[in-house]
Amino acid sequence: MESNPVEEFTPPTPRAGAIPDLRVLVLAGGLSYERDVSLRSGRRVLDALRSAGVEAELRDADSALLPTLAGDPPDAVVIALHGATGEDGSLRGVLDLCGVPYVGCDARSSRLAWDKPSAKAVLREAGIPTPEWVALPHDRFSELGAVAVLDRIVDRLGVPLMVKPAQGGSGLGAAVVRDAAALPAAMVGCFAYDSTALVERYVPGMDVGVSVVDLGDGPRALPAVEIVPRDGVYDYAARYTAGLTTWHAPARLPAEVADRVAATAVAAHEALGLRDLSRVDLIVGEDGSAHVLEVTVSPGMTETSLLPLAVKAAGLDLGDLLGTLVARTAARAR
């Protein structure tokens, strides 16, 4: 995998009317567990676009959306919805039916990235490192006998383990299991958010998030953001509660490791068929190896989200970057 150095980025400059006559709809909210985070992301996107001179409006994905799209279609949509509404491909499919262009990947690729076991299978097939795993639907878990299944998991994958919903984000329902006795409780907590649990071998190392963007010259990795949660687990509270996590942008990595991480993130983005932007979550092992955990097609845009931190670390402006993506989306549709 070839590295794409961050230094090659040239900040886009679409201010002062350089994106004329474009009207953008920012979709945020929805009915998922991540509604509050989505609304915060949406407001951040709205402010950033307006600062770049783009006419933008914030809307929820509710029953009034389709009449709005039919009566006064925007030039482009920015999806700031998290959870199933924004990431399982269904909304993107509806936008396709309406003929409304949107920033980000298409419905098929979104569905693939949203389902973590499916995405990990594609990554493994492409030769991209990802921790060994097993996916367990709740029904199979019960039918085959919980104790017996959990014993086999521990025998095969060992401990510690990472347990998380097969579909979901923001760390909801995720837990690190450091003792086999804690695995049943972690499974119960996971099944509260999804009917299928993903159990994967825990890889010790540095948590990093790498945002990948395509501003017209192919997908490039922004500087990796190092994540240091106070309690060791980057769960929902650690992501969105002030003081529970420290971020370093760029991550404190040797140059050759940073290049490897960037190349791995871009390779994952391409293997899943994504476009425009994504965020790839990885673990960097003590030996400098990079392991992909999951890929998000609708990255958070809040004040503690990784993509805005990476944008700043790259010397870019969030409004200019989003404005460039919007302009490219509108041009692609034409």
Automatic annotation (TrEMBL):
What compartments host this protein? Cytoplasm
Query: Main subcellular localization, coarse class?
Result: cytoplasm
Q: What is this protein called?
A: D-alanine--D-alanine ligase
Q: Taxonomic classification, please?
A: Bacteria, Bacillati, Actinomycetota, Actinomycetes, Micromonosporales
Similarity remark: Belongs to the D-alanine--D-alanine ligase family.
Q: Which UniProt keywords apply?
A: ATP-binding, Cell shape, Cell wall biogenesis/degradation, Cytoplasm, Ligase, Nucleotide-binding, Peptidoglycan synthesis
Q: What does this protein do?
A: Cell wall formation.
Q: Which InterPro entries match?
A: ATP-grasp, ATP_grasp_subdomain_1, CPAse_ATP-bd, D_ala_D_ala, Dala_Dala_lig_C, Dala_Dala_lig_N, PreATP-grasp_dom_sf
Query: Could you tell me the EC number(s) of this protein?
Result: 6.3.2.4
Q: Which SUPFAM superfamilies match?
A: Glutathione synthetase ATP-binding domain-like (SSF56059), PreATP-grasp domain (SSF52440)
Q: Which residues cross the membrane?
A: none
State the organism named in the record: Plantactinospora siamensis
Question: Does the UniProt entry include the keyword Chaperone?
Answer: no
Q: What's its top-level EC category?
A: ligase
Q: In which pathway does it act?
A: Cell wall biogenesis; peptidoglycan biosynthesis
- Boundaries of every ATP-grasp domain copy: 120-327
Reaction(s) this enzyme catalyzes, per UniProt? 2 D-alanine + ATP = D-alanyl-D-alanine + ADP + phosphate + H(+)
MF terms in GO: D-alanine-D-alanine ligase activity
